[in-house]
Amino acid sequence: MRQLRQPRLAEIVAAKLRDDILEGRLTEGDSLPRQEHLFTEFRVSLPAVREAMRILETEGLVSVRRGNVGGAVVHLPTPQRIARTISMVLQTRRTTMADVSGALLHLEPTCVALCAERPDRAETTVPELRQVIAEQHEVLDDPKQYAMKARRFHEKIVETCGNETMIVIIGSLETIWTAHESTVWLEASLNEQAAPDSPVARKSLRAALRDHEKIVDAIEAGDSAAAVRLASAHLSATRRSSLESTKNHTVNTELLDNLDYGSSR
User: Fold this and answer.
1) CA 126/CA 217 separation, integer angstroms
2) For the whole model, what pTM was predicted?
């Protein structure tokens, strides 16, 4: 007969607080009661409370501040935070960026199809994508800013596809790819021939922008087949240049530290 393991007191406390966070009773930025209060509320030892905090901190659900102004602050799970966990798993498996790109080449067009099939796309997806395209036009003479907006277009397709599971899972992979591609542009800026402000690069940027516009036109028309075809061709073309010298690079979680989530989400 199999004996079930009894949860430790710290796990019980962590489970209760985790449930409060995931069910919305505690939200982003909220402060948890001080450990002395939790000690009284749960009637467990202070070491058990501290261990519960460590469990939640490891899960990314709280950050614990030490010192006189100490305490635990709540953080809700996001695709960007989940991306870090997925990135670490991929890094331990020595996954190449070509592998990540290959996954997105299959998955992102599915999100494009979902966007085109949304009955409310004229009020949701299309305005969001048109806004990003307008921002791309505004920074067409600034290759670095343009690259960021171009990546935002692809992230926005996922974010507005209407399927929450796809938004979370594929959105995490998009974040990992964005982190990688940002290094590609940095390396290109150091190469005079492939610099992002070279005539060849500028022509490529304008072609990519036209692709984005055609994809949104197809989404707006509700033509999912055309939207998928355009997106697949666009992704294949743009990924070839991004992976030309980095296809054997493996996933590097540290690159996520360079992303500014707040400015684009």
Assistant:
1) 9
2) 0.79
Q: Is residue 155 exposed (0-12), middle (13-18) or buried (19+ Cβ within 10 Å)?
A: buried
Q: Which of 61-65, 70-74, 225-229 has the highest mean pLDDT?
A: 225-229
d(CA 150, CA 105): 16
Tokens in use for 121? 């796309």
In order, the DSSP letters of 172-236 are HHHHHHHHHHHHHHHHHHT-TTT-TTSHHHHHHHHHHHHHHHHHHHHHHHT-HHHHHHHHHHHHH
pLDDT score at 197: 57
C-alpha to C-alpha distance for 146 and 76, rounded to whole angstroms? 30
Q: What would the two tokens of residue 146 be?
A: 């343009």
Query: Hey, which bits of the chain come out as E strands?
Result: 62-65, 71-74
What pLDDT score does 265 carry? Answer: 44
The pair of three-digit structure tokens given for residue 226, joined into one six-digit string: 């055309």
User: What CA–CA distance (Å, rounded) separates 54 from 47?
Assistant: 11
Tell which residue, 128, 124, 119, has the closest CA to residue 149.
128
- Give the pLDDT of residue 229: 98
Output the pLDDT for position 263. 39
